[in-house]
Automatic annotation (TrEMBL):
PANTHER family in the cross-refs: ISOMERASE, L-RIBULOSE-5-PHOSPHATE 3-EPIMERASE SGBU-RELATED
Lineage: Bacteria, Bacillati, Bacillota, Bacilli, Lactobacillales
Protein name: L-ribulose-5-phosphate 3-epimerase
SUPFAM superfamilies (UniProt xref): Xylose isomerase-like
One GO BP annotation of this record: L-ascorbic acid metabolic process
């Protein structure tokens, strides 16, 4: 039996709610925390430049509702990648990283998830990989100064699609402030990965885990890495969770969904929560006790 926190990705929630309403909804749905998103959209990238007052208001909403943010998902580097051939883009990517670290400190976020891409929209080259490693090292130095964890996500891209590959970069950049954030769906979708061995051999590098289903990559199909209903894809969730329980994994899990723009978003989240509640009970995972203070307390 292990005790683990279970969170929900911000983009799963209805988009028209205030932060206080979002935090209260997270509690009402039975989750322990919210995962905060800074993606490549102008709207969410603007969060990196929040004023002192905006940061204070956000913190106050968290405190008022007895909430926390475990991880900032910094996927904005997809638009401004660390490995870009354009020096201005690389400069922008490092500026984003520093702003993200400073924002994490101000908001009490301890972990920043990095997308494991050298480049996304550009052509991949040996040089793009070199720029990525060079700038990842700079990012880790920034994070270490503020005691903020950076964790690389296993991706929908062969550049970094396994914990074994993350461990390789950790060998080049040895730091306790650089870890891995495996996505069980992304690891499973790549046929070259042995999911059990990847988790077993690299568990010491795991800061947190994403729960997401996928459709596998084949010689004639590029795979599907988003919006696959839980239980309809290729992920053996029961097997993976049973393995992680045997290994005494005590970190957090986050359900990754993109239902926020759907009219039935809350129902879809409830269905996903029940799906994993049943699996947790089956394999011997106890969810962290959910402590809620309503806005009136």
């Amino acid at each position: 039996m292990t005790v683990n926190a279970l969170g929900i990705y911000e983009k799963a929630l209805p988009q028209d709610l205030s932060w206080e309403e979002k935090f209260n909804l997270v509690h009402q749905l039975g989750f322990n925390f919210l995962e905060f998103s800074i993606d490549e959209s102008d709207e969410r990238l603007a969060r990196l430049d929040w004023s002192k007052k905006q940061r204070e208001d956000f913190r106050n909403a968290m405190w008022k509702t007895n909430s926390r943010i475990n991880t900032m998902m910094l996927s904005g580097h997809r638009r401004f990648p660390l490995g870009s051939s354009d020096p201005d883009v690389r400069k922008k990517s490092l500026e984003m990283m520093q702003k993200a670290i400073d924002l994490a400190v101000d908001l009490g976020i301890r972990n920043i998830q990095l997308a494991g891409y050298d480049v996304y929209y550009e052509k991949k080259t040996v040089e793009s990989r070199e720029y990525f490693v060079e700038n990842l090292n700079k990012c880790v130095e920034m994070a270490a100064k503020k005691l903020v964890m950076l964790s690389i996500e296993t991706m929908d891209d062969p550049f970094i699609n396994s914990l074994a590959k993350i461990s390789h970069y950790k060998e080049m950049i040895p730091s306790p402030w650089l870890q891995g954030y495996p996505d069980l769906g992304n690891i499973t979708a790549w046929p070259e990965n042995n999911v059990s061995e990847d988790l077993e051999e690299n568990l010491s590098s795991v800061a947190a885990i994403h729960l997401k289903d996928t459709l596998a990559v084949t010689p004639t199909f590029k795979g599907q890495f988003k919006e696959v209903p839980f239980g309809k894809g290729c992920v053996d969730f029961e097997g993976c969770l049973r393995l992680l329980t045997r290994l005494n994994y005590s970190g957090s899990y986050t359900i990754e969904m993109w239902t926020g723009k759907n009219n039935n978003a809350i129902d879809e989240i409830k269905n996903a929560k029940k799906y994993f509640d049943d699996l947790f009970n089956k394999v011997g995972i106890e969810q962290e006790q959910n402590q809620q203070f309503s806005a009136t307390h």
